[in-house]
């Protein structure tokens, strides 16, 4: 959706600047002496991978987070924002990465909430007229009397933008506004932002990790990597390749390859699968691939591009809206999770504590979660306690789980030990297809190495492994095939030898090339 | 008949004051289950002060102050320390129960002051209560402060991002809630039944708490509920009036709770929330951490 932008203008005095900003969280240096400036009247893109520190800096500019070091300058004047209240009073508005609206209240109530002009008795009728005027000016249509929970995610975002504008924002910060929107909504949003900048002289700070958005809608771009600014560019002088290079920190070379002719028949065959996410947006779009026994397919991507939904569709936890899943020559599209487990599907969910285990249960009970349906462990319909006890002890020793005993509660295990237990109980069933979603997230070096080794063991024993990870090095070191995922589709399926981190990283950021996607 | 009604509305007033305070409290997201304790403590302080000084205004002042202070204490536990609100509330109740028994036992017996005059048998405090209902309704639904209070109770993160101090709003509301609980207790010991006895309330605070849920956090429904609950309570004192022998005092005392439970069940359904949009403040009882 290319938008025409005026040619770059002459540099002006920065309207908002942050100098020498440092912010530490326990164990993390989120921002390291960052200098950042925004020119008045620009759409200024802030680009960086997950965890680069973008949100933290924006929260500091909005007074929601206090920096450990450094200072903010507004129109050349030093300012202190103790809370969002101060920032709003100075004409800064923010649309957060996660929605900050009161679901039970009407759109209008949300817009006037906290507004400095609304004091004492609420004059909702007057406010309605003003907000309607704003809506007309920008061609938004939203029912001001509707309650926020009735709106779509895109409409909610508009409400937050309206709220910021109604609050008198001259500088509008949008944190990852496109991540929850459908493509047409993104188009409307970007066009609306252009209008704001052109007609009202609003300055827009647009945080994103998506390259096409930066290229289509910004005048300037600041690139963050691991808490530091690594580049400041005019968008007109940048290319997607240059931006990726800054974002990832390496040269980019494009080499993609088609998957070679197949030797055997695939064990898993996913055909044109589409599925909704929890918000009712299409998270998987006609995704297709196949996977053979004894192979690892690494799905690489930034969180929120459909990985969660893909894992759930394959595990039988999420219905598909169209498409087919075939496993072991059977159409399993509509089979329940239990039927899939029986056929030899093993699933390691990303949420170790919330989904994969029950914190208050003992390790034996947690192991039973994968065995309760197995006739060998339920003679005459009763759980075979002695058998489960033995099994758990075998898993504890084979997978080096450090636990006082097998009746300890899962909540007392460290993340690494809990993951070893989960891995052990899934792999001890000898699954033919293993779905591993973020299997090493948050683990220490030793546990990570252990989990990776076990995944490779499973592959050696003939399991087909679908590895979903954000860690590119992990994907590259374990996979036979690498599939960068972006907005619900595999950008390509690359042979490991032909996938290098630059290519895959660029594809994860939405850079589309003539690739051998299938 | 009028006598019974007037007397019932006197009881309603006690429920009304306490429940109105708790409603404001809960609208901002703080649950105080120790309402009974605040009422006991406020009532006892009012009783002792009025008896020693011979002054009703000083008595009420003492009741309101103690209620407000206990509300602040609950705020400190639940807002600043982010503790469990139910635990803090129950703690306040048990503490008040014990302390008032200890401090008040020397004052067991009647107040011994001239009764506060009534209007043809109707407690003047009932009229104060009606006025407070109107004021609370205006405050909650028609002022920007009210919008801020409701937002703090529904989604504190959204309120904070709108430039509102959730901590300040919640402190304000727990204090107001405490003052009204103190007023409720003082009205009980100085006007409704001016005789001190240990644990003189025997559950009035818990009925008031149920009343807040019954009201679906709306002051006008709260007024209607308080009137209804007052009549039930009065009937429990004179069960011979309606179907004697069938409906005992204990049946009448159970009725407020028996009504509240099905209402709670209905308003918790997704259907109700979708259809009517009003129900429990979303963030009720949840501590809020900034950022
Ligand atoms: N409240 C917090 N407590 C601890 N760590 C945090 C907090 N907020 C952010 N971080 C950490 O700071 C780093 C930067 O995060 P963030 O600013 O959210 O990045 P981005 O928005 O670029 O994805 C990450 O490592 C993240 O885990
Ligand atoms: Mg972010």
Describe the structure in brief.
With 518 residues, chain A is of the alpha/beta class. In chain A, 32% of the residues lie in helices and 24% in strands.
Task: Write structural notes for this entry.
The complex is a heterodimer of chains A (518) and B (291). Chain A folds into four domains: 1-91 and 170-251, Rossmann fold (3-Layer(aba) Sandwich); 99-167, no CATH class; 262-344 and 434-439 and 453-518, 3-Layer(aba) Sandwich (Rossmann fold); 350-430, no CATH class. Chain A contains 16 helices and 21 strands. With 518 residues, chain A is an alpha/beta fold. The longest helix of chain A is centred in the middle third of the chain and has 18 residues, at 183-200. In chain A, α12 packs across α13 and α13 (415-427) runs parallel beside α14. Chain B is mostly helical. Chain B has a single domain (2-110, 117-279), classed as Orthogonal Bundle (ABC transporter involved in vitamin B12 uptake, BtuC), CATH 1.10.3470. Chain B is built from twelve helices and two strands. Chain B has helices at 2-27, 35-53, 56-80, 85-104, 124-142, 144-154, 156-161, 166-192, 204-214, 219-237, 249-268, 270-276, and strands spanning 109-110, 195-196. In chain B, strands 1-2 form a two-stranded antiparallel sheet. The model of chain B has no long low-confidence stretch (mean pLDDT 90). The chains are: A alpha/beta (518), B mainly alpha (291). Chain A binds chain B through residues 59, 62, 64-65, 83-85, 87-89, 94, 96, 99-105, 109-110, 112-116, 118-122, 147, 163, and chain B through 138, 142-144, 146-148, 150-151, 154-155, 157-165, 277-279, 282, 291. The structure holds adenosine-5'-diphosphate and magnesium ion. Magnesium ion binds at residues 54-55, 97, 175-176 of chain A.
């Amino acid at each position: 959706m290319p938008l025409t932008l005026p040619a770059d203008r002459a540099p002006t005095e920065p309207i908002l600047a942050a100098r020498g900003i440092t912010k530490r969280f326990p164990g993390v240096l989120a921002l390291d002496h960052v200098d950042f400036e925004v020119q008045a009247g620009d759409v200024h893109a802030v680009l960086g991978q997950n965890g680069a520190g973008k949100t933290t800096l924006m929260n500091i500019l909005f007074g929601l987070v206090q920096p450990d070091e450094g200072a903010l300058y507004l129109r050349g004047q030093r300012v202190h924002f103790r809370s969002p209240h101060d920032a709003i009073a100075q004409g800064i508005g923010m649309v957060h990465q996660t929605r900050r609206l009161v679901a039970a209240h009407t759109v209008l109530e949300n817009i006037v909430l906290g507004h400095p002009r609304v004091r004492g008795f609420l004059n909702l009728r007057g406010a309605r007229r003003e907000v309607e005027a704003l809506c007309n000016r920008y061609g938004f249509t939203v029912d001001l009397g509707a309650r926020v929970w009735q709106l779509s995610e895109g409409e909610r975002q508009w409400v937050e933008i309206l709220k910021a504008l109604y609050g008198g924002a001259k500088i509008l910060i949008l944190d990852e506004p496109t991540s929850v929107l459908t493509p047409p909504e993104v188009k409307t949003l970007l066009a609306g932002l252009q209008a704001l900048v052109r007609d009202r002289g609003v300055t827009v700070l647009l945080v994103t990790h998506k390259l096409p958005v930066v290229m289509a809608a910004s005048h300037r771009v600041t690139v963050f990597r691991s808490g530091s600014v690594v580049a400041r560019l005019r968008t007109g002088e940048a290319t997607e390749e240059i931006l990726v290079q800054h974002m990832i920190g390496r040269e980019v070379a494009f080499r993609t390859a088609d998957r070679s002719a197949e030797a055997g028949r695939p064990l898993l065959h996913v055909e044109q699968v589409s599925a909704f996410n929890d918000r009712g947006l299409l998270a998987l779009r006609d995704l297709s691939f196949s996977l053979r026994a004894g192979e690892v397919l690494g799905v690489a991507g930034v969180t929120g591009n459909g990985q969660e939904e893909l894992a759930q569709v394959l595990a039988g936890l999420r219905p598909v809206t169209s498409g087919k899943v075939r496993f072991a020559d059977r159409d399993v599209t509509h089979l329940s999770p239990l039927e899939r487990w029986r056929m030899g599907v093993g699933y390691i969910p990303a949420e170790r504590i919330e989904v994969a285990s029950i914190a208050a249960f003992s390790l034996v009970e947690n192991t039973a979660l994968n065995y309760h349906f197995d006739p060998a462990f339920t003679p005459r319909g009763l759980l075979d306690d002695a058998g489960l006890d033995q099994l758990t002890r075998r898993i504890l020793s084979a997978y080096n789980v450090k636990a006082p005993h097998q009746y300890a509660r899962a909540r007392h295990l460290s993340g690494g030990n809990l993951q070893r237990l989960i891995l052990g109980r899934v792999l001890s069933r000898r699954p033919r297809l293993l779905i591993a979603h973020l299997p090493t997230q948050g683990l220490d070096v030793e546990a990570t190495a252990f989990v990776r080794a076990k995944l490779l063991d499973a592959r050696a024993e003939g399991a087909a492994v679908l590895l979903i990870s954000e860690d590119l090095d992990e994907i590259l070191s374990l996979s036979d095939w690498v599939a960068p995922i972006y907005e619900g589709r595999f950008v390509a399926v690359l042979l490991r030898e032909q996938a290098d981190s630059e290519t895959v990283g660029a594809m994860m950021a939405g850079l589309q090339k003539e690739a051998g996607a299938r | 008949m009028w006598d019974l009604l007037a007397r019932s509305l006197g009881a309603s007033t006690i429920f009304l004051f306490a429940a109105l305070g708790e409603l404001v409290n809960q609208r901002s997201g703080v649950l105080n289950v120790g309402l009974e304790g605040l009422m006991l403590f406020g009532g006892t302080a009012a009783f002792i002060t009025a008896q020693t000084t011979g002054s009703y205004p000083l008595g009420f002042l003492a009741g309101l102050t103690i209620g407000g202070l206990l509300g602040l204490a609950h705020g400190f536990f639940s807002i600043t320390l982010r503790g469990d609100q139910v635990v803090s509330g129950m703690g306040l109740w048990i503490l008040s129960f014990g302390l008032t028994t200890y401090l008040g036992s020397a004052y067991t017996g009647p107040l011994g002051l001239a009764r506060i005059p009534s209007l043809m048998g109707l407690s003047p405090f009932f009229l104060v209560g009606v006025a407070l209902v109107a004021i609370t309704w205006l405050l909650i639904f028609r002022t920007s402060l009210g919008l801020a209070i409701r937002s703090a109770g529904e989604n504190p993160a959204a309120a904070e991002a709108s430039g509102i101090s959730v901590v300040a709003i919640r402190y304000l509301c727990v204090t107001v809630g405490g003052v009204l609980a103190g007023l409720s207790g003082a009205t009980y010991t100085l006007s409704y039944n001016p005789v001190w006895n240990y644990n003189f309330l025997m559950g009035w605070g818990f009925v008031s708490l149920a009343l807040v849920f019954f009201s679906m956090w709306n002051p006008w429904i709260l007024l209607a509920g308080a009137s209804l609950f007052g009549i039930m309570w009065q009937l429990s004192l004179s069960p011979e009036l309606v179907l004697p022998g069938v409906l005992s005092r204990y049946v009448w005392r159970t009725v407020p709770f028996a009504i509240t439970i099905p209402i709670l069940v209905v308003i918790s359904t997704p259907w109700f929330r979708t259809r009517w949009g009003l129900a429990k403040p979303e963030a009720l009882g949840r501590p809020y951490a900034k950022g």
